[in-house]
Amino acid sequence: MLCLGCWLALPGSSAGQGTMPQVLDTARLQEQWNYLQERTRIYNDYRAIREDMFQKVKRNAMDSLNFQKGKVRDLSGQLMATREEGDSLMALLQQTREERDEAIRNRDRLSLLGKGMHKTLYNTILWTIIAGLAFLAILLFTMFRTTRHSTVRTRKDLEELREEYENYRKQSRERYEKLVVSHHHEIKKLKEGRGM
């Protein structure tokens, strides 16, 4: 019996050779190992496995390893691509933040006569100028009104003064004429009084 077991386990023996079990073609690697463990015998702490089955399981194991290595390579490539994309996105995010900060600074800064200044200072200067111009406009309007009122009053006084002057001139002329007439009458009386 012992001889028979060794003879069956030898790779060149045709008695142990048969068709390849379907489990070695279709099952998963773990199931193939389980199949070999259940179907092979142990002799002196050695497991007797047919060479063609061993080679088939070895090829299947190598194919599985190569497939997994390929998956690992693909995943490593994807991981590297994802990291590069993440780094690129982080750089883009940093650039976007800097542009946002610059836009905020530019939004809060205005240019007045070629000098950049903060919006608050610009508003303060602008409102001070507007208030100064408004004050100046009010002052000029008040001065105009006062001057106009004074001019109207002066014209009125001038008209009254002209009227008084005309009245005075008229009265003076009338008085002068009366005096001349009266003086003429006096001279005439004197001449008549002497000639008599």
Question: What descriptive keywords fit this protein?
Answer:
196 residues; mainly alpha; 2 domains; two-stranded antiparallel ribbon; two-stranded antiparallel sheet; 5 helices; 7% strand; rod-shaped; disordered N terminus
Give a summary of the structure in a few sentences.
With 196 residues, the chain is mainly α. It has helices at residues 2-9, 23-26, 29-39, 51-107, 119-195, and strands spanning 41-43, 46-48, 109-112, 115-118. It has 5 helices and 4 strands; from the N terminus they run αααββαββα.
Textual characterization of the structure:
The structure is a single chain. With 196 residues, the protein is mostly helical. The chain folds into two domains: 2-100, no CATH class; 117-195. It is 80% helix and 7% strand. It contains five helices and four strands. The chain has helices at residues 2-9, 23-26, 29-39, 51-107, 119-195; strands at residues 41-43, 46-48, 109-112, 115-118. The strands form two sheets. A two-stranded antiparallel sheet has the order 1-2. Strands 3-4 form a two-stranded antiparallel ribbon. Strand 1 and strand 2 (46-48) form a beta hairpin. Helix 3 (29-39) packs antiparallel against helix 4. It is rod-shaped. The termini are far apart. The model is unreliable at 1-16 (pLDDT under 50).
